[in-house]
Amino acid sequence: MDFEHRYSPLPRSADIDEFRREVLKFYTVEGRSFPWRRNTSPYSVFVSEVMLQQTQVYRVEPKYLRWMREVPDFPSLAALSTERLLGLWQGLGYNRRALALRESAVKVMEEYAGILPDDPELLKAFPGIGPATAASICAFAFNRPVVFIETNIRRVFIHFFFPHREDPVSDEDILPLVEASLHRECPRDWYNALMDLGTLLKSRVPNPNRKSRHYTRQAPFEGSNREARGAILKALQKAPLQSAGELSENTGIDFRRIIKAAEELKKEGFLAAEDGMFRLG
Fold first, then answer.
1. Distance CA 28, CA 22 (A)
2. 208: which DSSP letter?
3. How far apart are CA 212 and CA 208, in angstroms?
4. 171 neighbors 215 (Cβ within 8 angstroms)
5. How far is residue 126's CA from residue 6's CA, in Å, rounded to a whole number?
6. Is residue 123 predicted with pLDDT exceeding 80?
7. The whole model's pTM is what?
């Protein structure tokens, strides 16, 4: 696909049609294959969408394949112990997503008779699921023509429609273009195409998302609270009952950071405390 900027922010319908044809042509030739694209069951898509939040695809794919072998459906996920849950999740980061994923499985079983709803408004009420993820689940699992923006989609539209914009581009500027160009007969393939094109653009041109009003740089991992939280959970999988002092010694992380992170994890349900000793919740 030609990566030159072609369209104005107020394109003609002919421009939208051309844009759609070019994106789908690109996808036919260069579209990527992932296991969650081959298995589009609601459970498969739900798991993959949560895993892919803030985590690179190359890290997700092997974890997803193991997960689907060992936790193949909502009933098995709802019954998963915290220790097993975190063991399977290890390496994906942002461990609270794992806890939210299990809570969502419990919600599916208890409130929806084991069947994931196909309504983004209902899915937004699930733990850890925001509007964009709720819509993407509906597009990929149920092929519903919903409108949403995520980072790769945003990159595509900013690059092709706002090349000379000096002021930051908001999602409100992009949403009408996403809606106008949406392939309503096959939204699943359309959004896959946009995401693949956005990924390729990242390696071909200066990141268009820097023009976005919503652009932020991720804080460094080393020395962060995320690092301490992850280290605590990993340490407790090796030795199930440890004091804050032992956790500090075994992780090499300052005692005060360990205390802060452990208290947060306890409030969120990851840890339980007994006589000054921490264990997985």
1. 10
2. G
3. 8
4. no
5. 39
6. yes
7. 0.78
